[in-house]
Write a structure and sequence with these properties.
CATH superfamily of the largest domain: Type I PLP-dependent aspartate aminotransferase-like (Major domain)
Structural class: alpha/beta
Order of helices and strands: HHEHHEHEHEHEHEEEHHHEEEHEEEH
Number of helices: 13
Bound molecules: 4'-deoxy-4'-aminopyridoxal-5'-phosphate, glutamic acid
CATH topology of the largest domain: Aspartate Aminotransferase, domain 2
Largest sheet: 7 strands, mixed
Number of strands: 14
CATH class of the largest domain: Alpha Beta
Amino acid sequence: MVATTKPHLADRINALAESQTLEMAKKARELKAKGFDVISLNLGEPDFQTPDHIKEAAKKAIDEGFTFYTPVAGIPDLRKAIAEKLVRENGLTDMKAENIVISTGAKQSLVNVLMCLVNKGDEVVIFAPYWVSYYEMVKLAEGVPVVVKGLAENEYKVTAEQLRAAITPRTKAIMYSSPCNPTGAVFSEQELTEIAKVVAEHDDIYVIADEIYEYINFTGKHFSIGSLPFIKDKVVTVNGFSKGFAMTGWRAGYIAAPKWLADACDKMQGQVTSGTCSITQKAALAAVTGDLTPTKKMSEAYQRRRDLIKKLLDEVPHVKANYPQGAFYIFPDVSYYFGKKYENYHIKTSYDLCIYLLNEAHVSIVDGEGFGEPNCVRISSAASDENITEAVRRIKVALAKLS
Ligand code: PMP
Ligand code: GLU
């Protein structure tokens, strides 16, 4: 993660690295604009349309003139519907509308929480491999990111023992995603219970549980750490609509948190963006109260594609692909190719490899450095079978040229 320093800019922005996912997406777009046939497997973005009943709710909101500022934390019926969903589906038994704050995507939800919880110098334990933005968000809040790495042999999942060893008197929070971006790993109930026990040993440590891939889970069971009674008052559950409902562009995410923290996020957001788009909130209401069949169908497609990309990558020499249990990414170890060369390319890092694959194979993927695991690359499988098959074919040909 490289931060570029520019004179006249504040230290805070100079210290911030550009989002790796967005950077690779930008590079792919630039190459496409020059007329190259680039297959983009960089952004974690569903390739499906938002389900019709959600679109209809948005159209209705426009037609009915629902186009004004909303309360900062969201419209009351959406906050209530989300609270009810969390009780019904996730076992977060105490949730009420007052615990919910809706934001312009889970990205903003996460920033709100960190800005409201973390003091300068407070440590935030981030389970690695992690979603790119966690690290920089903690820095933005003047916290200290403490990275704890899950081992490949444990599906890259951090254990309770590893967490215990990382906690210091300055630890304020831990954060992870399950299903995980970028590995697709899913924490089981037992694993999260063990982690929760470690957190519960300390008074002032909070859990930021990012469950945005909740509905894209191939294990058949999603577990929310906030459902454990002995820790529920210390958990912030983060979720959103981008992934499960294919609503990336609509910008809606939310937190479910203890009231004192939800109120703080409301205050924070009130000075930064106000409530998210009124029309989007009506669409989100249709999503959270509506039929989950389209969501289930999309998840089935992601599972099929997971199997396809895993099978294809297993046929590429020296690429060690993991077996994701959720989300729509695969995170293979490509370190065998470090040190290899082809023409002017000298591959030293996974970033170099991604640039090589972009230019040579016209396939855009994201390096593992930004996710805290420099031996790997992240490939999104939220793409058609044809694109996945062709992309892996091109990757195989390009890798074979390296020696
Ligand atoms: N958390 C994770 C793990 C993600 O992959 C994403 C994807 N952007 C987000 C949060 C943020 O999602 P959004 O802001 O689109 O709701
Ligand atoms: N979460 C997606 C990803 O990891 C979207 C891009 C982003 O917001 O960084 O690719």
